[in-house]
Every structure is written in structure tokens, then in C-alpha cells.
Amino acid sequence: MMDRPRRHGEISGAKLQGGCGVDLNDAESYDYHLPEDLIAQDPCEQRDASRLMLADRESGILSHRKFSDLPCILKTGDLLVMNDTRVYKARLAGRKIPGGARVEILCLSGAEDPRVWMALVRPGRRLPPGTMVALENGLAVCVGERLDEGLRLIRLPDEISAGDLFESVGLLPLPPYITKSTADEERYQTVYSDPEKKRSAAAPTAGLHFTERLLDELSAAGIGHVFITLDVGIGTFRAVKSRNVSAHRMHGEACAIGPEQSARINEAKSEGRRVIAVGTTVVRALESFADGSGRVRPGEMTTEIFIRPGFGFKVTDALITNFHLPRSTLLMLVSAFAGYEAAMAAYREAVGARYRFFSFGDAMIII
Fold first, then answer.
1. Inter-CA distances, 263 with 119, 266, 269, 287, Å
2. Which of 38-52, 129-143, 235-249 has the lowest mean pLDDT?
3. N or C end: fewer C-beta atoms under 10 angstroms in the chain?
4. Which domains does the chain have, with CATH numbers?
């Protein structure tokens, strides 16, 4: 019989604590059973109406709330750190020249030459270097050399800038597990995304639950927020293919923290106020910019940080996050922050309570 969804605010019997008798370096340790019908195809009609699992590491209790309850869950003085990147229309659809076979290209990051990009190409094996792909605007993309892990170099047409090309013929790159969404494209953007920062190939999905009204309510409750930027790319969503987790290599992702933002984060830490990361991308940026004493340096960098159990967190005090794919680096990050047994217990609870999973799904806050 299917487990019933728990009511709003109901406390579950699941405990966060527990011993760990598994090999945390084995990718299979991060697998879990997920019924296909729990993969959200559309977001909630209202962003902050999604469910929110509250995982209290001190008490060991999981409880079930709504995302709109966040002002009541957090404390005056807490500081939310949010990723203000915006998703660009990174997916190009075209036809192979000659032959007309359908080709999809997901542009992930540019090189020194603004017309040369790293990309995922389907069907990549059937496209030798030099293959031309016609786009619907009559221009063509050249598929270039093969790189590691299925990546290809591609050259965009000379007649138009990359930004104008993406805006004119690009498609929003929804994840492959979202196959029948009817959502408006803006629902795959956070309400606070910066129009000048169209640099991500995927959304920082923990932020999708916020509304302008909720941000106002948080501010009125004395809960501040600052924006940093991490350009979400292949490093965030690339699957862990090796059985040995330590053999996985993260791809670099550009991130930046301004002087004013780093000062506010450091001030909160020095005053004993909690720094709450909205999403795993924020955790990666914060911990990448932290020095040995836990102070956050301002600046820009490309981070390849891989956070998994055993990692020592210097900045992050609490985490708001969606529910992530099995065997993913994001689940490993959550396991590092909550504790492995705690994280996996929370995921089992989420499945049993019929939470909605992945990008358009529900959320969890770990405090």
C-alpha cells in the first residue's frame, strides 16, 4: 500500500542520527529507490506553496512544512546567501548537413574565442569532427573535436554573437528527466536572477521556491540576504560514473563574490549569526572562497571543489536544497553536510511521504 503524504507541520518518526556501516567512497552507497511518478514535471502553481522538509541536526527530528513557513523557521539575524545567476537558452536544435538527421547541442561554457564552446552533442558518436549542423535561422554550427567525458568543441557561426544566437534560436535547457512540462520558461528562473548574468546551463533550483512576497516577509522578520554568483554548468549535474567516488573529477564552474557581500557574510559569522546557503551551488562558492580561518574572500575564480562526506565546512551553517538524483555529486554534498545516514534517512522519508523530486520538486532545509 502506498504511504500517505504527511500533513502540513506534522512531525515524522524518522530520526536523523545513525551509525554509518557503508563505504562512503562507493558511488552505490548514494543510490536510492525513487518511483518515477515522484519526479516533478511541473512546479507548484505558486512557488512558495511547495513542501519543505525540516531536518534538525541537533534534535534529530524531521518535520513537514510549507516553503512559505520559512520566516517562522529561521531566526532574526540569519543571513540567506543566494545565487543570482540566470539560465540562458543554451540548447540548440538543428539538422545535420547533409542528411537532415536531428541534432541537439547543449552549450556549456565558452573558451577564449567567444565562438568556441564546450558542449554536449546528441547523437555525438554519429557526428565526426567537422560536421555542420544547420539551425532554424539558416546559420550553421560546426561540431569539432572530441574531449573527455563525452564533451565536444563546437564553433558558433560568425554572423551573430553567441548571446544573440541563444536568444534568437536557443531553447531553455530543462533537465532530461523533465519530459512533459507545461510550465512557463520563467518558472525555471529564480525571481531574483540577474538579467545581466545569463550564464548558467541549469537553474540553481533551491531558489525557485522564493517569491518577492516571501523575500519581503523574511526581511521584515530581520532575516537578511545577499547575492553571489556561480555559473551552473556541467560540474554541478555531471553524473558520477566511476564506482570509486574519489576518482570523479569535477568540471570547473566560474563563481564570484563581491566585497560588500563577503563583508556581510563575515560579519554574520563573527557575530554568531547563521549563514544559510540557498542551494548547493552557494555552498560550493562559499566554501571555495573561505580561507583557513573561515573568512570569505571577495573575488572571482573557477572552482572544481568536490564536497563529499569527510569535508570540513567553514562557512555554511544551514542549507536549503531540493532533492537530488541518486549517485549525484549534489546528494554527496548533502550527505557531507547532514551526515550520510541522516541524509539517506531524509530521502527515504521524502519518498515515503510522497515529496516531489528534482528541479521542479519540493525542498528541504537542514539546520
1. 36, 5, 10, 15
2. 235-249
3. N
4. 11-87+184-366 (3.40.1780.10), 91-169 (2.40.10.240)
